[in-house]
Amino acid sequence: MTHRTVDRRKFRLIASLSAVAVVAAATATVALAAKDGEPAPLGAFVPIERVNKNVVNPEVGQNGAGGVFTVDCGTNEKGKFSADNPVAQPGLKHGAQHVHDFVGNLSISAESTDDSLLDSETTCRNGDRSSYFWPVLRINPKANPQDVGSTPDKVKETGPGEVACPGVGDRLPAVPQRVRDEVTRNLQLLEQQLKEANERVARNENPADPNFVNNAILGPLRSKRVATLDRIAIAIGRSARKPNLVSLADCDLRFGHGNHGGAGHGEHSKPRKFAADGVLQQAGQNGAEQNGAEQDAATPTIKCPSVRGALPGVPDQAVDEVDRNLALLDKQIAEANQRLVTTKGQGGPNFVDNAILGPLKDKRVATLDRIAIAIGRNAERPQGLERLAPCGLNENNEGGNNNGGNNNGNGNNGNGGNNNGGATTTTAPPLAAPSGKNLELVGNNGKIVRPAQVKIEYRGNATSKVTAMPKFLKMVTGDAKPTSRGPANARATWTCSGFDDRLSDKYVICPNGSKVMRVHDFAGCWDGQNADSANHRDHVRFADKKTGACPQGFRAIPQLRISISYDISRDVQQKGQYQLDAFPEENHNPFSDHNDFANVNSEETMAKIVKCVNDGRKCS
Is 408 a residue whose pLDDT tops 80? Predict the structure, then answer.
């Protein structure tokens, strides 16, 4: 028996024991750790009747808040699909390696900033500009339920994996002239830290071992980046407003990136084109009915050359003006991203060039000129910024359309820029973009199932009144990588309509007339200070399961619950042919289900939510 086999078995045992604490005994065995003797073909599936009742709803006390505020944001009728994760992987284009359903904010992408989200249109009927997104569900007649949740050998064959980090240099505000060298040195240090982490990954014999990867590589790397990012923020803050860079600290290990090619993993220079013969479907009888929203590709996003990385140090007198214009560039891109969604299918082959990219270039020319003039009043005026005006599309791995745009390391691990005083850029090979009518990539194949219903609820707290969420609060629930990161943050989410007293960590088989459901509960307790944290989790906590009380030092906020229902034929369920989009190493593991949220509610709307919940009413 090999050392690697022993490690795998040891980890499967650990994962299984951890899951027992979360889910009742009938569903305690996660898909990546199926029990010996369990029926092999449907090891990742369970009839809902066999799942024990395990949902505890603490009784609302005298000082509690029992109201519910419901938001209708639709079921992604606009067809905003993307492999970006703007919350957990900011700046990493296609970083999720699986496709997300997006509802709410129409402009959001991996490159979004908080300010760029404010003016977006939304799919939410009450005007909520928040972003809610989760992995899509697919029907794949060729699915192998017996293999679901195990790490595929084909992923292991791609190598030890690669650490990917959010870019920093292209997400900074204007860097004051007097601290430019100091910022550059720290950007270079970020690159060195990343290089050292990848060297350790390359030497690791078992990259899927969560203890080694997280404790010996990713954890220390995050700590180093937090300290380095803080030094950058402090340096900028001596002459300008101190930026909050904490959301850029967390890095992740990815497998099957573009450098290796092969089935389902994309090639280095060009995304793999799958032989997809269908359209996105509402899964009815045998998954045969069209959902009325055919998509030929994932929603593309705008790709523009880096401006921040191309600027010299900015004179103190010009910092505020340059920052305003940098923010305007972000908003122009966000507006163009929104138009790509709202005008999808309109016009002829040149519509995007003439109606979106052309006007965007004109706006950028004027804005870049204002930046150059502002700097030139007190220092040498930067030359040639107009070359950064043309933008293209992020729809594939080749850098946009014929209008170009090189992005200067803005898409993967780039921490530097084009003219940042010598900081280098360690850019990972590009990740594959979703392709074909089914938006397939990285082994995530089959027809996407549009939800029959999406219910978004802001709920109360059993022991105390709730306080408003801060603007731009970001949260994740569940864990997309319980195989490589361990199951501590994974959550059981699967159930059937009419069985809201139980949740399973396996895919469910529902009775006739009952819908397949995913229920995502977000943390309902906030530290009162931070809108995000280095790992996107430490600033929030879950309330006590039995009492509903928040941990000491945390205050109750409206607790977000997103319930997603699907019409999937019982025949498809019984054959184990529906599955979750996932990272390659998860292989559609149902325990890797997760959901992300960025709060862009207005203060007025959030006040209405808080009052409704605290008054114990049901509102919408």
Answer: no
What pLDDT does residue 257 have?
53
Beta strands in 313-357 (DSSP E): none
CA–CA separation, 518 and 246 (whole Å): 30
The encoded tokens of residue 423 equal 């900081």
Q: Which amino acid is at 499?
A: F
- The SS3 of residue 237 is helix
Alpha helices in 513-569 (DSSP H): none
Q: Which two tokens stand for residue 59?
A: 């009784």
DSSP 158: T
Residue 292 contacts residue 467 (beta carbons within 8 Å): no
| Sign (positive or negative) of CA dihedral 237, 240, 242, 247 | negative
Mean pLDDT across 318-337: 96
Q: How many CA atoms lie within 13 A of 370 on its CB side?
A: 16
Q: Which residues contact 36 (CB under 8 A, 6 or more apart)?
A: none
Residue with tokens 């017996």: 146
If DSSP codes are grouped into helix, strand and coil, which group holds residue 31?
helix
Can you tell me whether residue 289 is helix, strand or coil? Answer: coil
Structural domain spans, the chain: 3-150+445-619, 162-264+299-409
Q: For residues 427 and 191, is the Cβ–Cβ distance under 8 A?
A: no
Six token digits for residue 359: 């006007």
Interstrand relation of 494-496 and 516-521 (parallel, antiparallel or unpaired): antiparallel
Banded model confidence at residue 42, pLDDT cuts 50, 70, 90: low
Nearest to 23 by CA among 54, 2, 44, 48: 54
Closest CA to 340 of 356, 321, 358: 356
Beta carbons of 359 and 138 less than 8 angstroms apart: no
Q: CA triplet 96, 98, 102: central angle to 5 degrees?
A: 85
- pLDDT digits 0-9 by tens, 190-226: 999 999 999 998 887 766 566 788 889 999 999 999 9
Strand order in the sheet with 474-478: 81-82, 100-104, 131-135, 594-598, 474-478
Packing angle between helix 358-376 and helix 319-342, nearest 10 degrees? 180
Tell me if 46 sits within 8 A of 509, measured CB to CB: yes
- pLDDT of residue 166 exceeding 50, the answer is yes
Residue 326 Cα distances to 227, 333, 425, angstroms:
25, 11, 21
- pLDDT tens per residue, range 46-84: 999 999 999 999 999 999 999 999 999 999 999 999 999
Mean pLDDT of all residues in 134-158: 77
Interacting residues of 574 by C-beta distance below 8 A, sequence separation 6+: 42, 509
Local structure of 18: helix, strand or coil:
helix
pLDDT digits (tens, 9 = 90+) for 514-525: 999 999 999 999
Query: Angle between the 180-203 and 219-237 helix axes, to the nearest 10 degrees?
Result: 180
The whole-model pTM stands at 0.85
Tell me how crowded residue 603 is: count the other CB atoms within 10 A of its CB: 9
Amino acid at 559: Q
**Contact, 309 vs 170, CB < 8 A?**
yes
DSSP class of 592: G
Cα of 44 vs its chain's centroid, Å: 24
